[in-house]
Amino acid sequence: MKNISNIRNFQTLSSVFLALGVIGLLVWVVADEVRRSELSALRLPVAGDLGVNADKQASLRQSISVSLASAPLDQKLLAQFLILSEDGSERAKGYPLLANLGWRSTAAQQLLLAEALEGQDLREIMERSDGLLRRGRYSDELISLMLAAEQDPAGRRWLVGALRSNPPWAGRFFGRSSGLESEAALRAHGILLGDLMDAEIAVGRNQLRSGLSAMVDRGLFEEAYSLFERSVPVKADKRGLVDPDFTLAFAVQRSGEGSHPFEWTVTSGPGINSRLVSAGDKTFLNLRWDGRGNPLLLRQFFRPQGLDISQLLLTSRDGDSAVLERSAQIFVSCADRPTDKVRFIPAEQDDGSLLYRAERPLSCDFAKLEVLGLARGFGNRELNIQIDRISFI
């Protein structure tokens, strides 16, 4: 019973060690050299700092020593002993032994993580975090730690090596955007993604999507587009609008994966049922809309590279161009200057095509095209529209 009580005491202590370790690394990994030297002088709390008096420590230490003598390879007992030990030589010998006993004990890995933090051993910190993540423990905290560590060049190098083997935590790592709020974190994440591509490590669409979306939301368009261009075969019109004939959008829809910001985002929801359709060698957008409100139907960020944006040609099924003229409104804005926005006005109509002209020419490095529904004149009549191609000319 005494051993069970000791283990419970240890579990409480080690949980505190882990929390302190995660918080400490988040600070350490982004600190300058002066701050790091200050942090290196700090020691993690010992049992006495957590309300265990000296007599109790001695009693626990004696009890654990007896148990450890009969089970010297018990990771939990050894970890308990190291927490309570005041002998520097014992600790110096004990930690390497604990590290060599494998990954069986979550508690032992927590203690080793805390020790690695105290020694500012980033590689050991990452290795122990990897071990805990593989055991499915403390995933949220440790993924946050990984995202913080990628801001350090050494941390990025470790991550490139670890991600080469596609560890079980890779999906959670790439899927998390909550640790990418700051510009520095996003830039570091972009560098890591580029490093993975440089190392010819496959980076899938799902692995890219959270990072690219966060970069675009933060205004890091150049960094996001550079990664997008390296990962997706880009077919664009003269003003940089990607996938004017919806071929890529259809492939993305068929894969079940989400779209990137520099691809077509097709709205589907209450009152809207839009789908990409392939018929023979032709792909088109089939837009079904109940005619209510002025919803966003279609959107894409694109890179015109400073060229004037003034004319857009929309091709549709025969007979649909007249409906499109009355049912859709098109806007283009500069991505980094959202208030710099122009409307495109229907100018010329031909069978199956409709030419739009901008109210005024617009020049941007990065822009956003939006197609919105226009209910005026239609009441609540349902629309069924086919769009074959959208391109700037």
Automatic annotation (TrEMBL):
Source domain of life: Bacteria
Organism: Croceibacterium atlanticum
Protein name: Uncharacterized protein
